[in-house]
């Protein structure tokens, strides 16, 4: 991924920075609206739920704390913007996801550390988000690159990887905007500390990079990767067949693709966006049709995603997990 | 509930009818957009998922079937509109909900059929939707009224209660618009038959009515009901305290309120709508503060709502269930 040089990219970058900057204003407006309505209620209603007004004040404090963090995250944005290789970094990041385990188990079994030297195994993680799965893989000694398109994610991962040099030095209030389905007021205002590991702990000879940009545009070279690991990623495509085809092409002959996730199709019903949403049965036909051999396949893998554990509404994905291999003779 | 006589109500009625009428056009446009994008893909991608195009055609047929049903539902709408008591009916309706069981169990235990004559027990079900819970209660012999505000619901319940005189005579495709998280194409196009019971099976001496209108406006008379049963209802309020206060007022002294549901707060973040969203802890303070005595209380009651059982994304509400009583001496 090169410089943010063209006008369109510059505009996208500015829009992301603006969204970050608007966070505080928008959030406080939202709270003020509830406050105003509350104060218009009959006095005896207000008295019955006096503590609700105090709760709205606590929420304001959480928003201020989140905004403080945002300001730190975007502080170096201009520097990053002018940097030739803005988010490539030999670094690391937090946020543990239970859904990484089956992927890592598979990598360890396919590329045992006592076999081929781990640093000679090249693993790509498209849709890397904050980079945690890629970091975990690099920590095991493999050469690992995370790829991410969203600047929201990239700015946050840059902050964690380059600015955090100890564990639990920052606090965020991830569920402060979930006004509904709370059993207790403190379920909305609970904080999470990060990073849960020190990004500087990665050994100096490990090879971990993050690459910014559109997966289909960044990865055009054939037969490069020993393994592509995708977690909650393939449904980020307008055309899922293009993603699968690219994964097939960039894998070395005999290389493997490990996938875990649902089929949420992020562009479905998004205005101005094209989208097709084939069921898993059809996705499977694409995989096989392109030449992959499916070696493992598991339905109904229970996974959650960024969930408030205390919420009265719980989501559960029944994800698909599979491993498939590009034929040796291509 | 009287006539739809004022201009505002007439306009609301027309907007609901328009929405029903627009269903087919909108749905087919949505499918055409995917079709168009699919046909713009490289030929070899189209070949890899040929059956997806056939699937889109099957979806069209499901939409046509749903639209046929909608036309039947709104056929008598004008007649209904001019009727003095548009949706009061001595009738019944379908759709079984597992979350009704704890409520019905409680009613049977509080008002045992071998005690006070069931027909002398007056039970109100606000937010009755299609009326099924109220129907089940009436079937047990109690005098039961369902109250519903949404004309979408009222039109559908009128159709089922007055036009369906046998079981499983109609088919609907409830999940045809869920384009994402399907394991197989047929999970999107599966049908559901209704009604699952014959609405005419209610004994002639039973007393079941549906009343249209805003709960806070329709129920203004004190000390009328032996029991108010609410299921996924109290979070439909702008101000939940007003709902709870009304429930308290309209209950006879010694009467009980049975509630099951989450706190989704339907007006939260809806533009032009006022909303406060107190947590359950605060809702509980309102209940006790108004004079109710809580007799039973259970958290974490696992309930689902209109869920596609085959979807790769499953929602689960951890509902609150409680029973509280209005003091005898008020």
Labels describing this entry:
S-adenosyl-L-methionine (chains A, B); homodimer; two-stranded antiparallel ribbon; carnosine N-methyltransferase (chains A, B); Rossmann fold; CARME (chains A, B); transferase (chains A, B); seven-stranded mixed β-sheet; 11 helices
Helix content of chain A: 40-55%
* Number of extended strands of chain A: 9
- How many H/I helical runs of chain A? 11
Q: Stretches of chain A where pLDDT falls below 50 for ≥5 residues?
A: 81-96
Protein model, in words:
The structure is a homodimer of 330-residue chains. With 330 residues, chain A is of the alpha/beta class. Chain A has two domains: 3-79; 93-164 and 199-326, Vaccinia Virus protein VP39 (Rossmann fold), CATH 3.40.50. Helix content of chain A is 40%, strand content 20%. Chain A contains eleven helices and nine strands. Chain A has helices spanning 7-40, 43-48, 50-75, 77-82, 100-110, 132-139, 151-163, 185-188, 215-218, 240-250, 280-289, and strands at residues 122-126, 143-148, 170-172, 192-194, 208-212, 225-231, 251-261, 292-303, 313-326. The first copy, chain A, has a seven-stranded mixed beta sheet with strand order 5-2-1-6-7-9-8, sandwiched between helices. In chain A, strand 1 (122-126), helix 6 and strand 2 form a beta-alpha-beta unit. In chain A, helix 1 runs antiparallel to helix 3. The radius of gyration of chain A is 22 Å and the shape is globular. Chain A starts with 6 loop residues before the first helix and ends with a strand. At the A-B interface, helix 1, helix 2, helix 3, helix 8 and helix 10 of A face helix 1, helix 2, helix 3, helix 8 and helix 10 of B.
